[in-house]
Amino acid sequence: MLSALLLFVGENRVIALGLYDGTLKVLDCETKEVLFEDIEAHERRIRCVSFSPSGSYVATGSRDRTIRVWYIRTWTRVGYTFEGRERSVTSVAFSPDGKQIASSSFDCTIRLWSVASGTCVGINHRWTRIRFCPHRP
Fold it and tell me: The domain spanning residue 36 has which CATH number?
């Protein structure tokens, strides 16, 4: 089982795959060429991936109860490891401005994280999935 995310940004069209062994693989969408593979992202299975609104970063959530952020040009980890979950991360999503990450977990909470500080800035209980939706008046 794997988590996959497709990104179309200008000429860059990539697929980010979060794999069962905790690694990331990145493919070119058109040629299927492997651009990066065996990126040691997490200690356990990657359950979810999400691109930032700018298309420059990817957040990954894992069974190891952490969230990590990756810079897509080099696929290197940046910033903080977001920790504090009691169970597996089930979904991650960047806020529309890219300054926060929301995550859900099998511990039935939604946590809102500051990308700049790596701290949890809010918790809501009784949920297992999240998604940001841009406000449209």
Answer: 2.40.10.480
